[in-house]
Design goal:
Helix 1 packs across helix 4 and helix 2 packs across helix 4. With 312 residues, this protein is an alpha+beta fold. It has 6 helices and 12 strands. The chain is globular, with a radius of gyration of 19 Å. The strands form 2 sheets. It has an 8-stranded mixed β-sheet with strand order 1-2-10-7-12-5-4-3. A 4-stranded antiparallel β-sheet has the order 6-11-8-9, with no helix packed on it. The protein has one domain: Jelly Rolls. Strand 8 and strand 9 form a beta hairpin. Bound molecules: 2-oxoglutaric acid and fe (ii) ion. The site of fe (ii) ion has 3 residues, from loops. The site of fe (ii) ion (FE2) has 3 residues, from loops.
């Protein structure tokens, strides 16, 4: 198994109105990828490599600031949004039974004007690039949701109707910039990785990476390495979408390895857009079956959060 590459041109963000496009071929290809692999590379989405590089450059400048500055923006310090903000090294464990992940991250979850950002002297371009990219990823995700609904022959708005509040406190969608600093893999703790094995929690995830290291688990349980393909967006199904589609679309575990022994100087960066349904939407099996009971994203996310961060 390898991860398929699908051409998204007909629904690209550079096509102003996709409603009249012929999306059938595209929807068939996406369906096969999401049913069989759970991951797909999309090319020609309208989001360019240049845009991605620009956001990664601004993120890197933020991460290279002293922790003392970044702590002013730490996650859980924003009264209006508990998810938004900076996550220090080894704070998060995406595999709940393993040591903390060897990465730093910045979660953009709230676009509220009361949210405090680093000054443009401390982190040039950080706020603007993050916010602009959040919107770009949102627009692309909504297009993907529409094609996914078509592919399943259900109401084309069925997923869109549950993603109306992105960027507000009523929706957990997050643009996460991750920074994996150089690490000597021989000094890491037993079982420690750059990002522990996990599946994503939301509806779908868009991922942009600037280096290898990502691995995806196959049905046979062995992991395969995912290349970094410039100019593409890697899209995967997340857990709530798997339930929503009664397991037709599969949410697949993945992880980010430490660099190979002897490589103590490479950094890695990624940008992940975790698309989530609105907190109070109801996610129930779209085929009308009772394979899973209906869930509320707010309650579901809280439960998953305890696993990754503890019940504190
Ligand atoms: O950094 C990456 O390439 C993937 C990270 C990831 O899977 C996640 O943060 O959920
Ligand atoms: Fe992930």
């Amino acid at each position: 198994m390898s991860i398929p590459v699908v051409d998204f041109s007909v629904a690209s963000l550079s096509v102003e109105d996709m409603s009249s496009a012929d999306l059938h071929q595209l929807s068939r290809e996406l369906k096969v990828a999401f049913m069989e692999v759970g991951f797909v590379f999309l090319k020609n989405t309208g989001i360019t490599q240049e845009e991605v590089d620009h956001v990664m450059d601004a993120s890197r400048r933020f991460f290279l600031q002293p922790d003392q500055l970044k702590r002013l923006f730490v996650r859980k310090s924003f009264p209006i949004n508990p998810y938004h903000g900076w996550v220090a090294m080894e704070t998060e464990r995406l595999h709940p039974e393993k040591p903390g992940d060897l990465k730093e991250a910045f979660n953009l979850t709230s676009l509220h004007p009361d949210i405090k950002w680093p000054s443009s002297e401390a982190a040039p371009g950080f706020q603007e690039t993050q916010m602009t990219f959040f919107h770009r990823c949102k627009e692309l995700s909504l297009r993907i949701l529409r094609v996914m609904a078509l592919s399943l022959d259900v109401d084309p708005d069925i997923f869109l109707n549950a993603h109306r509040l992105i960027g507000t406190e009523e929706n957990y969608t997050t643009l996460r910039s991750s920074y994996y600093p150089p690490v000597n893999s021989e000094q890491a703790k037993e079982g420690q990785l750059r990002c522990g094995e996990h599946s994503d929690w939301g509806s779908i995830t868009l991922l942009f990476q600037n280096a290898e290291g990502l691995q995806v688990r196959r049905r046979s349980r062995e992991f395969i390495c995912v290349p970094s393909v410039p100019g593409t967006v890697l899209v995967n199904i997340a857990d709530m979408m798997q339930r929503w589609t009664s397991d037709h679309f599969v949410s697949v575990p993945h992880r980010v390895l430490l660099p190979p022994a002897g490589d103590c100087s490479s950094t890695r960066q990624s940008l992940a857009f975790f698309l989530h349904p609105d907190n109070e939407a109801v996610v129930s099996c779209i085929d009308g079956s009772d394979k899973y009971p209906p869930l509320r994203p707010s309650a579901y996310v809280k439960e998953r959060e305890y696993d990754s961060y503890g019940r504190a």
